[in-house]
Write a structure and sequence with these properties.
5 helices, alpha+beta, 5 strands, 190 residues, 35% helix
């Protein structure tokens, strides 16, 4: 009896369910780009080392070139195409524009998706490899340039826009912190 080598799967991408046939060996990156025409996610090294293909899976960053499409079924997938709120850019996208956090732009979608996750991970108190005090009671470390560089280290930029990328992530984190504080204050006064 021959084993099936393909399946019809349904992926939840950017809040929309998309059904497609895939070979079981198809990566999420190839399904997004080749079958669903979501070409914002870039193919860089195709080995999980450059971060150009970074997407969000259930809110966490993942290199889509190493993720099988069949394994992503039932998970919430967010690509660069789903980050903005209609015509309103996500704060990370806006910060990348404001600080010129891109040059050729090839790595930018992966950088932005990764930065969104970095900001959320930091806000949740996750330590990084450079966090001095990792005790839970110490709370989240300051999101310094060193912290940002370490947390974004899985995303490479051949153009060398790292200084601007760090500034953009810092600005977006501040914007998100103000928004969160404002929402919490609004809840207290309501």
């Amino acid at each position: 009896m021959a084993l099936a080598t393909s399946s019809v799967i349904t992926l939840n991408i950017n809040g929309e369910k998309r059904t497609l046939p895939v070979d079981h060996r198809t990566t999420l990156l190839d399904a997004l780009r080749e079958q669903l025409d979501l070409t914002g996610t870039k193919k860089g090294c195709d080995h999980g080392q450059c971060g150009a293909c970074t997407v969000l899976l259930d809110g966490s960053r993942a290199v889509s070139c190493l993720q099988l499409a069949v394994a992503a079924e039932g998970r919430e997938i967010t690509t660069i195409e789903g980050v903005a709120d209609g015509d309103r850019l996500h704060p990370v996208q806006q910060a990348f524009l404001d600080f010129d956090g891109y040059q050729c732009g090839y790595c930018t979608p992966g950088q932005i998706c990764s930065a969104i996750a970095v900001i959320e991970e930091h806000a949740a108190g996750w330590p990084s490899a450079v966090t001095a005090d990792i005790r839970p009671e110490a709370g989240a470390p300051a999101l310094t340039a060193e912290e940002i560089r370490e947390r974004m280290s899985g995303n490479l930029c051949r153009c060398g826009a790292y200084v601007s990328i760090v500034q953009a992530v810092a600005q977006a984190a501040e914007t998100e912190a103000r928004r969160t504080a404002g929402a919490a204050e609004g809840e207290l006064t309501a």
